[in-house]
Amino acid sequence: MEDRWLSVDEIGVYLGVKRDTVYKWISEKAMPAHKLGRLWKFKKDEVDDWVRKGGASETLGE
Fold it and tell me: What SUPFAM superfamilies does this protein's entry cite (predicted)?
């Protein structure tokens, strides 16, 4: 169960950001996300790596 897919709301809670921020990061900062039908899903380890590499920083992608 540790490696399950997380929803937009769950990844937002995990990162401490609002769902609008998650959608913005997907489109503007190449946040690792997978679209399953209409829903975005996330792997926690992929998002952790992205954050460690500075993916959520203010200046990346601007």
Answer: Putative DNA-binding domain
Conformation bin of residue 19: beta by default, left when phi > 0, alpha when psi is -120 to 50: alpha
Q: pTM of the entire structure?
A: 0.85
Q: How far is 51 from 32, CA to CA, in rounded Å? A: 10
d(CA 39, CA 48): 20
Q: Where are the alpha helices (DSSP H) in the chain?
A: 8-15, 19-28, 44-52
What distance in Å separates the CA atoms of residue 48 and residue 41, rounded to the nearest whole number?
Answer: 14
